Amino acid sequence: MSPDQNDFKDFPDGHSTSPQQPDGFSDFPLPEDDGLKSIEDLNLFEDSGDDFTDLSEMAGEDPAVYRQSEPSKQSESLDDTKIITSPKETSQKKKHRFLKDQNLNGCLKGLIYAVVIVGISLLLSYFLILGINDMLGLVKTDKSVTVTIPEGADAKEITSILKESGAVQQPFFFNLYMSLTKSDEKIKSGQYEINTNYDYMAIINSLKGSSEERKTVSLTFPEGWTIDQMVDLLVQNNICDRESLMNELNEGDFSDYSLVADIPENPDRYRRLEGYLFPDTYDFYEGESAESVIKKMLYNTEKKFDADMRARAEELDMTTDEVLTLASIIQKESGVYEQMTTISSVFHNRLKSKEFPRLESNTTDKYGTEAYDTYEIKGLPPGPICNPGFEAIKAALTPDTTDYLFFVTDNDGNYYYSKTYQQHLANIQKAKEVNEQIGGTGTREEEQ
After folding, report:
1. What pLDDT sits at residue 93?
2. pTM (whole model) above 0.70
3. What total of structural domains would you count in the chain?
4. At CA 204, angle to CA 198 and CA 205, rounded to 5?
5. Which of 190, 178, 180 is nearest to 154 (CA)?
6. What residue spans of 257-389 are helical by DSSP H?
7. Are strands 65-69 and 81-85 parallel, antiparallel or unpaired?
8. What range does the domain containing 365 cover?
């Protein structure tokens, strides 16, 4: 039975029939929006991640909590309800924290990246400044050195030689400079005198000269020679004149050599650089400057007295000057290393002894002034009495372990050691039976 149209007259205005109604009801006008929505529009069961649409928002209520009755009994009060935080609010907080952490991590990474870039830039800038200073000869020491360029030396060998001499401090830049200017093709073999404060162009120009035109002289200075003996040999071979040599030895500034810089100020010192001109074989130019000659020998001493020797001196609680002073006395007492180490033990024992605080070496009263006479003074003299060789320096640093306080020698090279003065007197008689000229510790008074 078809419904009568009058059956729907009681519907309030604005109410709409279902869109599924038959055409027979089409006479009823339908409003454009009746205020109701379909089940689908309510999104009651729409999955939105891990949260649900908040129905309370549609109702205009506070969305903070839901009240859910206990399943076992009917809720009678607020105490019977569970308070549940909105899943949507929790999700939003998690998302906010995640974004905040992402932003923080991004900032940290950006900061680290910026620090690395700035650090690398500063390092490259510093390296570039060093290279430019070296190329232009800026902030370099004023020091005369002699370099020998062998026949057929390539750019790498030339740079290595100049680096060792101190003329070049940044070999990378010097190699680059030679490569760009093709300077290695213009450098000739030979021996050259250059200054360590030269710029790259001046260095290369110096090495392009004809060194063969200058006559070279090879001189050997034996261990134990004094400065006066060395000066005599240099003058005799026309290397330089005596006056210029003595002026440089007494007044020249050689403080860029660490050993010289540590020499103590002492008005009783006879020769300031005595003990510091290493005995060796050197090649000199005729007419070479006194400064160049002395620096060449000081440079050799600096190399020989290496870091291990300096560390050993500190272990003995001795300065470098004290080691060289003791080595010079040992050098004068014997030229045989096996005897040097035992003689060294005698002197070390005396330096520690309260009963025999004087070295009493008859080699010291033949040098300089009375201030060097170890029969009169306690301990070491004001400075070295000669220029000791490597073995004497080593013996001063590594003495044998003995209780000896005396020794005496004869002309046949025999050494007699003793712990007591009575034994020493007996040894003196043994030495005198061999010859009348004896030396050693505590022998001068017995000779008189």
Report:
1. 61
2. no
3. 2
4. 90
5. 178
6. 258-261, 290-304, 307-315, 320-333, 337-352
7. antiparallel
8. 217-402
